[in-house]
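fyi for ur records
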Amino acid sequence: MKNVKNILSHLFPKKQKLIEHGCLNRLVSLLPLRLKEHILFSYLKGDTVYFVVDHPAIKMEFNYNQKVINDLLNMIAENLRECSFLKGKTFVCFVSNKRSKTPKEKGKSHLKNYKEPATGEFPVYCEDKELQEIFRRIKENIKRNLHGLSN
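which gave:
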């Protein structure tokens, strides 16, 4: 005779995989940015969580931060009921031997764009004609940047 868990697993065969995937995504989101950016994917097999990274140096970083990652695994297992299966799991990190055809898209650029604070209105006190011409070009460039035009 079949039990309820067996019947539900036949009705919703992908549910456990979706839950595992969501918990692993939560774990990856809690990792430091320098590690998170280089993880290609992660998966669970047996009692081990596998992280696939794109560079050998990141694999070394995972090994150096082993205690932190184990603590994160246990913290997620204790605080999220659906992720309780992560309790006591170990993790392994390895480098993918396949290179992607297109580079992994990064998030938005971390560089901030600032508005031009200068207006291009300043007096030129030098006597030299060459320097006056240079200052005139600087003024023009500043004014051009104010109006959003490029060189």
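The CA atoms of residues 51 and 93 lie 5 Å apart. thats all i got for now
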